[in-house]
Amino acid sequence: MSDSTVRIGLVLPDVMGTYGDGGNALILRQRLRMRGYDAEIVEITLNDPVPESLDAYTLGGAEDSAQRLATRHLTKYPGLQKAAERGAPVLAICAAIQVLGNWYETSSGERVDGVSMLDVTTSPQATRSIGEVITKPHLDGLTLPLTGFENHRGGTTLGPDARGLARVNHGVGNGVGDGQEGVVQGSVIGTYMHGPALARNPELADLILKRALGVDELPTLDLPEVEQLRRERLRV
Ligand code: GLN
């Protein structure tokens, strides 16, 4: 790995990574390599402290007990919090939204303090939300609908410092009646969309990469299979 290598942190894949969410790191790496960048994935497990110097970070979903281990680890080693403070992009999927929030309640009703990078709280909904989601993003730089697959019991309430990533057109999203899906706060983007989200939403992948590289534009990638997947998932 040279000094110019772009380093993508795959955070706690040993406990957080349902539905192939680790694929988000692979997609970031691949889209960089196709454009001629050296790029590597740095896996950070429960055996490692969390480095604060990486260029971007991804975290996946998890079930309650795994989520709790992740919360404890990220609190003990606050590298992710320091990286986000300097503006490094962080992508948080599903349970990761809950872990990075102020607190979440497990499905058995126990409240667990989160990492407080996101001004959100999460409590179980009456029913589990499972299925395809289609949304219209609010974020500047995103023009296309975002799609994914959701499977969560938690419903997430946004506090005043957080805003939604997108408005739900189909599916449940955050699930607290405000029509919002996901969360944006500073350099952290959270979504309930598995899929992996970045395979289905290349525009979101490139937005994260532009932030990681500190550039306004990236060369377009002409990838018919990716475009086909993106379009296919709009027809649910
Ligand atoms: N355990 C969390 C919930 O059900 C997150 C699930 C997930 O990441 N798929 O809300």
UniProtKB/TrEMBL annotation:
UniProt cross-references to CDD domains, sorted A to Z: GATase1_CobQ
Binding site for substrate: 128
Pfam families given in the database record: GATase_3 (PF07685)
Keyword Transferase: yes
CobB/CobQ-like glutamine amidotransferase domain mapped to chain residues: 7-201
Xref: Gene3D superfamilies: 3.40.50.880
GO molecular function: carbon-nitrogen ligase activity on lipid II; glutaminase activity; transferase activity
Residues forming the catalytic site: 94 (nucleophile), 194
Catalysed reaction, written as an equation: beta-D-GlcNAc-(1->4)-Mur2Ac(oyl-L-Ala-gamma-D-Glu-L-Lys-D-Ala-D-Ala)-di-trans,octa-cis-undecaprenyl diphosphate + L-glutamine + ATP + H2O = beta-D-GlcNAc-(1->4)-Mur2Ac(oyl-L-Ala-D-isoglutaminyl-L-Lys-D-Ala-D-Ala)-di-trans,octa-cis-undecaprenyl diphosphate + L-glutamate + ADP + phosphate + H(+); L-glutamine + H2O = L-glutamate + NH4(+)
Pathway: Cell wall biogenesis; peptidoglycan biosynthesis
Keyword Cell wall biogenesis/degradation: yes
EC nos: 6.3.5.13, 3.5.1.2
Keywords from the UniProt entry: Cell shape, Cell wall biogenesis/degradation, Glutamine amidotransferase, Hydrolase, Ligase, Peptidoglycan synthesis, Transferase
GO biological process: cell wall organization; cobalamin biosynthetic process; peptidoglycan biosynthetic process; regulation of cell shape
Signal peptide limits: none
Quaternary organization: Forms a heterodimer with MurT.
PANTHER family: DETHIOBIOTIN SYNTHETASE (PTHR21343), LIPID II ISOGLUTAMINYL SYNTHASE (GLUTAMINE-HYDROLYZING) SUBUNIT GATD (PTHR21343:SF9)
Function text: The lipid II isoglutaminyl synthase complex catalyzes the formation of alpha-D-isoglutamine in the cell wall lipid II stem peptide. The GatD subunit catalyzes the hydrolysis of glutamine to glutamate and ammonia. The resulting ammonia molecule is channeled to the active site of MurT.
Recorded family membership: Belongs to the CobB/CobQ family. GatD subfamily.
Protein name: Lipid II isoglutaminyl synthase (glutamine-hydrolyzing) subunit GatD
